[in-house]
Amino acid sequence: MKPSERTFPRRIDLTSLQLFVAVCELGSIGKAAEREFIAASAVSKRLSDLELTLDTPLLYRHTRGVDLTPAGESLLHHARSVLFSLEKMQGELSEYADGVRGHVRVHASISAVVQFLPEDLGRFIHGHPEVKIDLEEHLSTEVVRAVQEGAADLGVCNAAVLTAGHNLQTRAYRQDQLVLIVPRRHPLARRTAIAFEDTLDCDHVGLDSNSSIYMAMREAAAASGRTIRLRIHVTGLDAMCRMIHNGLGVGVMPRRAFELMHGVGELECVRLTNDWADRSIDLVARDFSTLPVTGRLLVDHLAAHAQVPEPMATE
User: Fold this and answer.
1) Torsion over CA of 140, 198, 204 and 281, rounded to 10 degrees?
2) What are 39-88's pLDDT values in tens digits?
3) What are the two backbone dihedrals, phi and then psi, of residue 158, each rounded to the nearest 5 degrees?
4) Is residue 252's pLDDT more than 80?
5) Which of 117, 134, 113, 143 is nearest to 237 (CA)?
6) Which of 4, 64, 97, 106 is deepest in the core (most CB within 10 A)?
7) Bridge partners for 105 per DSSP
8) Cβ of 42: how many Cβ atoms within 10 Å?
């Protein structure tokens, strides 16, 4: 073994590795500096020093941000592995510390954030006031990607978006039920249940095109040989209710979310009879057993509070 190879571990700075991963995840030195609360010039200097240490360029720098070189792709894979091992070590050692401290990074879908997490996280923080929870709202597909890449310790989302061959673990959390939202004077408001395919003659107000709800709607329409008459995409459930109230179409959202926002317009909900309208919202992690002790406490708390909503009346 060459002397330089023996000293290699001592020449690699963990902080620089963390910053490198942050830059790769965000595609920008400036954004990474903002997230990590450090000057952009300091991040740039650490990356340059890292390239000098490894004697190879890691990033292509351009006006729109950065892209990875082949060497950068390889380092990113190994850096995530090293940082994940450190998180595992920290989690195991934290069990020997007095008290429960630390923070958990959680990415969750809009359905989970609106319907369940405020109360469940509130109860957890009440019992563990020294634990900090960093919660970010994302689409279910983005939640899964964040967990896979290590940007989030825990995901809360519709696990139906997981692709075949994924290497993530899941635990049951909640059930929700999708319903059709219509104006109170709409002809469909008199129905108590309806198949989604029977709504396709109506204009629709839809969520983000990559949301799990809209993808399920699109697949159902395609299976019936139809398309969705989409009037507008919105980014939030409250905006959807306001658009429907003002006559822009009908929409699909979780039943409990609609009930929590009751009063946002003169609206009614109609149960969808499709199998995909009854959904599971699950907890997602790379490995639940290797989460820090605070993360495992949160997972156990959320799993213990899982509830199945009462079914709506049928025709």
Assistant:
1) -20
2) 999 999 999 999 988 889 999 998 888 999 999 999 998 888 888 888 77
3) -75, 105
4) yes
5) 113
6) 106
7) 134
8) 12
Residue 309 lies in a domain: no
CATH code at position 184: 3.40.190.10
pTM for the whole thing? Answer: 0.66
Residue ranges in the chain assigned as alpha helix (H): 3-6, 8-11, 14-26, 29-36, 40-54, 70-94, 110-115, 117-127, 140-149, 212-223, 237-245, 255-260, 293-304
CA 213 – CA 146 distance, rounded (Å) = 19
User: Angle, nearest 10°, between helix axes 14-26 and 29-36?
Assistant: 120
* Cβ atoms of residues 220 and 197 within 8 Å: yes
In a domain, 310, yes or no: no
Among positive and negative, which fits the CA dihedral 131, 134, 140, 145? negative
Residues 267-306 pLDDT 10s = 999 999 999 999 999 999 999 998 988 899 999 999 987 6
Return d(Cα 296, Cα 105) in angstroms, integer: 12
Q: What is the tens place of the pLDDT at every residue in 134-182?
A: 999 999 999 999 998 888 999 999 988 887 767 899 999 999 999 999 9
